[in-house]
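Lab notebook: predicted structure, single chain.

Context: the supervisor wants predicted structures on file for every construct in the current expression panel, including those that have not yet been purified. This is the next one on the list. No modifications to the sequence; it matches the entry in the shared construct table.
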Amino acid sequence: MKRFITSFVCALAIALVASFGVAAKDKTKRKTVEFTEDLMVNGTVLKAGTYDVKFNEQTGELSVIKNGKVKVTTTAHLEPRSTEAKDTSLLTVETGGAVAELKGIAFSGSNQNVIISGSGGSSSAQ
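Prediction complete. Output recorded below exactly as produced.
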């Protein structure tokens, strides 16, 4: 019986340590951002306001969330930056229309920009 309990405790400890390793590998970046103007994201116009922006590196999915509801989801990829981002900033481009288009996001402390796939042109922030 004592051997069974010892084995069980060891197995539990190993499972606990392994779960910390899985949690550490979570490659999701999330930040609350303020849209100071209406923005077009993947064909959807989002009104100015406060949103949560979440990027999952493993799936390449960028989601824009307001009040717990996903407003738009699009594919994105990482591109290297020359310097680490000091602040979180939105990368936008004027398209000549009434609404600027979101091309990506620079998360504070990151040395990579999240770029919306299929995006071209120049961005307004680095």
